[in-house]
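Annotators were shown the component list below and the corresponding predicted structure, then asked to write short factual statements about the assembly.
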Amino acid sequence: MPSPSSVFFIDEASSESNKNNSAGLSPKEKVYSAPREIANKVHGEEASRRGVLGGNSSVPLPHDKAIYLSRFEEWDERRPSWQYLNQASTDTSTPYKGKEGKATAKVLFTSDLHIDAPKNRQWLEDLPYCPDETLIVAGDICTSLKKLRATFELLVARFQYVFYTPGNHELWTYAGQGNSIDKFFEILDIADECGVHVRPAWVSPGVAVVPLFSWYNSSLFGSSAAVELRSSQEQNFDRMCSWPVEIVGSQSDPHDSLNPGIASFFLDCNMVRMQRNDWPAASELESATVLTFSHFIPRPELFKGLPSLRKVMGDTELDVQLRMIGSCTHVFGHSHMAVDEICEEVRYVQGALGHPRDLGGCRGLPNSIWNCPKQPDVV
Ligand SMILES: [Fe+2]
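Structure shown to annotators:
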């Protein structure tokens, strides 16, 4: 069996969300005061949501995605909705290599590893052993499943706990690979097999890490008047993806990754999970430190790049979901630009490795978003 590193050398091809402005309530109270309203917005009023946020009203709305949502539900329910990594596990199906049962000391974050680039591969292989640290990888490791598995194995060997959510590059497909949603499920299985967390988990008492699935739509563009107009970059973005008719509709181009059904599907996967009976009570999350992450960008002001790429950057509905969960800090990736901002009392950070040609990539040990509070000295 090749070592993880040798595999790398195989060549292969303002938010619309925060509308609950009840006076006198904290941000978390505002969120929890209207979860049903938000859930209805995501689940029950898709047509109106797409009219505002989806961006491409000429695309027929798909009605058959339930088959894929059922598949996700079946996959997700193989395990509890949240793992308790800081407690000794009684679940013999988890391959976490005996690491569970110990609280983490730090939560580090990175994204956009793009390990096909030799310099990035070297950065990965040079990462130190961090047996007490948790690492969040917010998507875009590579397209090859073989390299993805090798990266998972390397990261799991270096860090205490590793969390991950797929980016757009993972969902590119090649002939014979099936569609991008099939590949999404294959990636989740590989993560499970390697002990990489793609489900929420407590990593220390009262501290949780929560992955969110996502895609982009035109919502970061803001204005509904010109959403049909796309730049050439937007038209050709992620043409290597292949989407099933159940997600994008039978009349649509299966390689059009701006079809609003795609972002809708991934948000719905999050909702399926959030509606599980064993999802923690709002009161438990409200008193916790909840660290969420997604590959795509949840708010327009967090995208600092070219306006001609704004429609392929994120989804403002993500901001609704992360606030429903009670996030205090959200990690994202995709734009490869360092961000550390507080918007409406939630901190948003990006610490992408990015392409070697990018300016400002986070190339040292990933930064942390949470450190274990120093314990008082025993006298
Ligand atoms: Fe990306």
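Statements collected:
1. DSSP finds 13 helices and eleven strands in the chain.
2. The chain has one domain: 4-10+41-371.
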